[in-house]
Amino acid sequence: MSHEIETHGTQAAAVFARKDAWHRLGTTVRDRAFTAEEAMRLGHLGGWDVRKLPLTTAEVSEGGVTAIEVPGFATVRTSPFTGEPEALGVVGGG
Questions:
Q1: Is the pTM of this model over 0.70?
Q2: What is the mean pLDDT of the chain?
Q3: Confidence of residue 76 (pLDDT cuts 50, 70, 90)
Q4: For the residues of the chain, what is the DSSP string, one character each?
Q5: How large is the average pLDDT for residues 43-65?
Q6: How far apart are CA 54 and CA 73, in angstroms?
Q7: Number of domains composing the chain
């Protein structure tokens, strides 16, 4: 059975109370209760900053570089592990 938990190196986007999960991924807090805000931080579950960015492309030819507008947008998030932007997918204007 697959755990479907996002991982980055030795870190995993999950948080558990008192007891480790069967897959042993994520952060387990055993000694105290935690708030939803702490769970988001400890489990790398928040701070995504999801946004839409316009799609663009360019054609490189002997005559130079030509920018081409592309209909639609890329959905991008800030990775909770690296802090770098990361593409999630492509959506339309609506």
A1: no
A2: 88
A3: very high
A4: ------EETTEES-EEESS--TT--SEEE-SS---HHHHHHHTT-S----EEEEEEEEEEETTEEEEEEEEEEEEEEE-TTT-SEEEEEEE---
A5: 91
A6: 5
A7: 2
C-beta of residue 43 within 8 angstroms of C-beta of residue 22: no
61 plus 80 within the same structural domain? yes
Q: Decide if 21 is inside a domain.
A: yes
- pLDDT tier at 8 (50, 70, 90 boundaries)? confident
**Structural domain includes residue 65:** yes
Q: Give the C-alpha separation, 48 to 43, whole Å.
A: 13
What is the domain range of residue 27?
7-42
End-to-end CA distance of the chain: 37
Considering the domain architecture, whether residues 87 and 57 belong to the same structural domain is answered as yes
The verdict on 38 and 57 lying in the same domain is no
